[in-house]
Amino acid sequence: MENKLFDTNDPTLNDMYLDLNFHVYEPNAKISLSDHLNIHVIQLPFFKKDTPIINDKQRWLYFFKEGQNLEADKLPNSLNTEEIKKAMKTLAFFSEDEKARLLYSERLEAEREALTVQRTIEKTQAELTKSQEALLQSKSEIAQKNDLITSMGGRLQQKDTQIQQRDRQIQYLLEQVKKSGIAIDNC
């Protein structure tokens, strides 16, 4: 297979192997992990300089292969787009100045780190909000249970008072019975 993939002398292979599109696929279960996950391997040796440029893919392939030989102010009509002009400026900028390339690379890294920090902050804020909502819910439940306990405590106190009154009434009746001379077994 390697001979076919890298044999640029066979013109029939040019279109077939220029852009290899690999999919994540499980052959035993015959399922694809995702229709949106592909790995493209572009083999620039298969792209010929004289290929007519009729779409964006061919435009970028030409730029990747021949960009270093192009002049930004003398682009062919097929390459004269805002994206290619911007890419040409970036290529020229990096080609001329190693220090500028390093600064650009560091700036990109700083932007990526800032984005990561921002996403972490947003995730943490979302988790904090969720925790605060759960805390408020728990406090509300505790307040309801405290109200129930207070209410039950009041009812228990009323029952206790009623029992004490009955005990006094029974004691009074027992004393009255004893004074009348009636014998009562100890209860």
What would you say about this model in short?
This protein is mainly α and 187 residues long. Helix 4 packs across helix 5. The relative contact order is 0.04.
By DSSP (H or I, 4+ residues per run), the number of helices equals 5
Give the DSSP E fraction (strand runs of 2 or more residues): 5-15%
Strand order of the largest sheet: 1-4
Q: What is the arithmetic mean of pLDDT?
A: 84
Provide the gyration radius in Å. Answer: 43 Å
Overall geometric form: rod-shaped
Terminal Cα separation, in Å? 105 Å
Number of strands: 4
Helix content: 55-70%
Structural class: mainly alpha
| String of helices and strands | HHEEEEHHH
Main beta sheet: 2 strands, antiparallel
- Residue stretches low in confidence (pLDDT < 50, at least 5 long) are none
